[in-house]
Amino acid sequence: MKESFEKLQKHLERSAALGVAMGLFYWDGDTLAPKEASEYTAKVLAILSAEQFDIMMGETTRELLAACEQEEKPSEEEEAILRVIHRQFENLEKIPKDDFARFQELTTKAHVVWREAKEKNDYALFAPTLQEILDMSRKFASLRVKEGQAPYDVLLNDCEEGFTMDILDPFFAKMKEEIVPLLRKVQENPVPKLPVHSCPLDKQRAFNCTLATYIGFDFNRGAIGETEHPFSDALHTHDVRIATHYYEDNPESGLFSTIHEAGHSIYEQQINPAYNLTPLGGGGSCALHESQSRFYENMIGRRPSFWKPLYASMQEAMPEAFEKISLEEFLREINRAEASLVRTEADELTYSLHILVRYELEKQLFSGELTVEQLPEAWNAKYKEYLDVVPPTDTEGVLQDVHWSSGSFGYFPSYALGSAIAAQIFACMQKQMPVDQQLEEGNLQPVKDFLREHIHRWGKVKTTRQLLLETTGEDFNPQYYIDYLKEKFGR
Amino acid sequence: MKESFEKLQKHLERSAALGVAMGLFYWDGDTLAPKEASEYTAKVLAILSAEQFDIMMGETTRELLAACEQEEKPSEEEEAILRVIHRQFENLEKIPKDDFARFQELTTKAHVVWREAKEKNDYALFAPTLQEILDMSRKFASLRVKEGQAPYDVLLNDCEEGFTMDILDPFFAKMKEEIVPLLRKVQENPVPKLPVHSCPLDKQRAFNCTLATYIGFDFNRGAIGETEHPFSDALHTHDVRIATHYYEDNPESGLFSTIHEAGHSIYEQQINPAYNLTPLGGGGSCALHESQSRFYENMIGRRPSFWKPLYASMQEAMPEAFEKISLEEFLREINRAEASLVRTEADELTYSLHILVRYELEKQLFSGELTVEQLPEAWNAKYKEYLDVVPPTDTEGVLQDVHWSSGSFGYFPSYALGSAIAAQIFACMQKQMPVDQQLEEGNLQPVKDFLREHIHRWGKVKTTRQLLLETTGEDFNPQYYIDYLKEKFGR
Asked: Is the pLDDT confidence value at A257 over 90?
């Protein structure tokens, strides 16, 4: 690496180390930290993030960056470093430092408020905090708009470069046009749900660890914990955490949360460790990350060939739930499509409609068309329109997701993009190797290797589009996803 | 607070926030972090501690400190701030910054090496790392010695101001003179051990949570986890963690680890929260901290009056272990003295002899009289001499404690001092209120209130000796401890 880049790296790893610390607080706050810690911990996080801000946005970074830009023939990695840092600058340079710290403090506290509001089904408890978060997010976005740009587009672009409303509006329009009628058809001839089959939590915990290992999660470099809303959190390639959730009377929920989060985590574990504590560390865009979790959850985790070699051992590990259920019944259950209330519990077919609701609501919140006060009502109306269900409580409605409490506006669309990217990669993978045969042999390694080689190892070196082009030979193409859903659920 | 102190506080809370982050990494590393994380996490910690070093030891701190020292009529708290910072300066100002960071990295890694060596009973695996830690600790201490001072005294003084070898040598000589013969007598008429009584870990977990709550640990401001070597870790007054350890065939071990660590944690939870993120936050000296954990463990936790109202519910919660054991048998068991191998499992009588061994070995390691290679043999010889037992493995011998892997030389004596301070405080408390009667009524609140009022709430505002003088009316006096042991075990 060139000397100027080495200096920049040495300088920026201080910011990266603070990022790792904040990542640990995030994990801990959601899995273990006591209830009353948040007030003081929020102060700590505000100070740490102000430190990080100072390092990232300070004169030294600018000077070192300028020196790096003078270098001739930068390597691919060096160019990527410049690209990533420029995006961070763009993200932060217009935000007043104090506001930035205040926002960190606000979202740390908001998380606790949201949790309590969700527990108590009390939207009014969360509304004032949500209003503050929305106001600050809108303010930040407004400070950053380029000529003629809508504030919401700024946030969309943060998550997935270039995927702003001019791309997403037609993408979701297509979903609405193709998937809502497809769901109506499915709803006319519903596949019956299996009767409730419960399993003690301890047995679920044990089998989910086995399952995570089976698909390729490395416990020597990771851990598993529990939370309300599953997530994964990478400190670095050698410490990646899965937070999952088990329900006694719904063991499938835990299984697919675990597979989904393991997908995120395998991605992080397979990034080149040389990128740890550099701007290239961590996975690529939100959508790319989601594509990997959905790849494991849906493309792999719902396939008959995946369960064939595994099902008997699951029956043995959780007999209370599965000994009376045949493999065929289980497969029918996990591939059943049915409109439901909760996004994280949604099936493949209806998932994108849950996202559609959030996308439209976020657009309206940002344009001012909708107020925070009106949000629950608007939420319920859209669920009625697209999914033909109405949440009986806000807990199962507008309060279900963690995202808004952490100020993550513009993130939801990447779930839908992620599904589409997963479908595109899977179509390509199937052309190159006998995936079903490998899965039937209980061999998950070729899939993991394929993803490492083409996607994971690159960290942030290549953009999502670059990776798609190099892996599949074409740019992002949502048609694979539409075809996949129509083929699977149109039968 | 005066303006100069406010500026100093604003500056130093950056260092305090980094300290909280490192506290979380410490907790996490010992309870959850995956095995292979340590290499990269050590880098992160090295960077964070270098940041902290820069803030603490930088020009800004010195300038602000000088301004504060010009202030007239500082308050008691302001004076304490100056005292605490001067002690930190004294501790750090002569250590080269790079060495300091290297030491952090070394001890983070060493912790993992020690754990593995202990698991495998392989001292040779740990020895080279221990040598490095010893060399660096000795180097740091040598850089800091004042005229004629021994390096080991520097470290003793870090833990407990003023308690250097000239005080500790006679203290331990007295212990050796009075306690070794007392133990010999006890060994002549041993109280028989109860037969093994096992209890499933889940039931132990559940009851230990109940127990921690019973004695006053607040789970709204704390959490409990598991580790090899129990410890407690305070992020701030509203987030204090207990890491305990359960053995299926020795439920008493878990009980007393929990009570001990809860003692540390109640201390931290009762400090004035206004001191969070200031130099006055956190408990006082090591010995004072140990006095609080031993107070709960021994003075309270082994009393008949403590168990009378509690024992039946423990029998119900862990019937496998206790339904066939009467309260009298249980009390005899937990107050039995018997020479054993492992410090953390030691009874009140032999505990100080375990410390005596470590004190003498540390002195010899620092003077060069003893090499790291000779350490296991010397360890075993001293156990033979004082306790009349010989460890069959290094796992139960020289590898049992975590302290040396974290570079904590000079810490062990504070355990013995802590016991002595606990006995002194208890003698005073008994004169002021009917402790046994309160305990029999299941009312732990008066004890907790007494300790908050006299000790806990002060954080680092007052020194240990000041607190002892103000609480008990006299300076440190180890005679209470000797009397207590002779009275209890001499019968």
From this structure: yes
Q: What distance in Å separates the CA atoms of residue A296 and residue A214, rounded to the nearest whole number? A: 12
In a domain, B207, yes or no: yes
Residue B161 and residue B229 in one domain: yes
What confidence category does residue B2 fall into, taking pLDDT thresholds of 50, 70 and 90? confident
Contact B277, B17 (CB under 8 A): yes
Assign B344 a pLDDT band (cuts: 50, 70, 90): confident
**pLDDT above 70 covers what percent of chain B?**
100
Which residues are CB-neighbours of A296 under 8 A, at least 6 positions away?
A215, A259, A260, A262, A263, A266
At A154-165, the pLDDT tens digits run 999 998 988 999
Using the 3D structure, point to which of A122, A144, A166 is the last residue of a domain. Answer: A144
CATH number of A179's domain: 1.10.1370.30
Interchain CB contact of B104 with A (< 8 Å): no
Distances (CA, A) of B183 to B51, B175, B389, B417, B485: 49, 11, 12, 19, 10
Integer Cα distance of B415 and B417 in angstroms: 5
- The whole-number pLDDT of residue A193 equals 92
For testing the chain B interface, which of A20, A39, A54, A201 should be mutated: the one with the most B CBs within 10 Å?
A20
Answer whether residue A149 is part of any domain: no
Tell me how far apart the alpha carbons of residues B346 and B328 are, in angstroms, rounded to a whole number: 20
Interface mutation target, options B30, B38, B239, B275, chain A, most CBs of A under 10 Å? B239
Per-residue pLDDT averaged across B443-468, rounded? Answer: 97
Alpha-carbon dihedral of residues A285, A288, A290, A295, nearest 10 degrees?
A: -170
Looking at the structure, do residues B135 and B168 belong to the same domain, yes or no?
no
Looking at the fold, whether A276 and A369 belong to one and the same domain comes out as: yes
Confidence of residue A1 (pLDDT cuts 50, 70, 90): confident
Tokens (6 digits) for A183? 């769901």
CA distances from B479 to B303, B419, B424, B433, B454 (A): 21, 11, 8, 21, 21
Residue B149 lies in a domain: no
- For residues A223 and A357, state if they share a domain: yes
Contact yes or no for B238 and A18 at CB 8 A: no
Q: Which domain, by its residues, includes B280?
A: 154-491
Known catalytic residue at B316: no
Judgement on whether residues B368 and B472 belong to the same structural domain of the protein: yes
Distance from A316 to chain B by nearest Cα, in Å? 22
Are residues B228 and B105 part of one domain?
A: no
Q: What is the pLDDT of residue A101?
A: 81
Whether residue B1 is predicted with pLDDT greater than 80 in this model: the reply is no
Rounded to an integer, the average pLDDT of B321-345 is 94
The alpha-carbon gap from B57 to the nearest alpha carbon of chain A, in Å, equals 17
**Are residues B37 and A239, on separate chains, in Cβ contact within 8 Å?**
yes
CB within 8 Å of chain B, chain A residues 223-252: 223, 225, 235-239
Could you tell me the sign of the dihedral formed by the alpha carbons of B109, B114, B115, B120, in that order? positive
Give the per-residue pLDDT at A77.
96
Query: Alpha-carbon distance A349 to A489, whole Å?
Result: 7
B14 → closest Cβ in A25, A47, A225: A47
Q: Clarify whether residues A127 and A161 are in a common domain.
A: no
* A276 contacts chain B (CB < 8 A): yes
Chain A stretch 191-230, residues whose beta carbon is closer than 8 A to a beta carbon of chain B: 202, 219-223, 225
Average pLDDT over residues B62-73: 93
Residue B35's closest chain A neighbor by CA?
A220
pTM > 0.90: yes or no: no
Token pair in block for residue A234: 């990478």
From the candidates B13, B77, B78, B261, give the one annotated as an active-site residue: B261
- Split into its structural domains, chain A has a count of 2
A187 and A100 both lie in a single domain? no
Residues B169-228 pLDDT 10s: 999 999 999 999 999 999 999 999 999 999 999 999 999 999 999 999 999 999 999 998
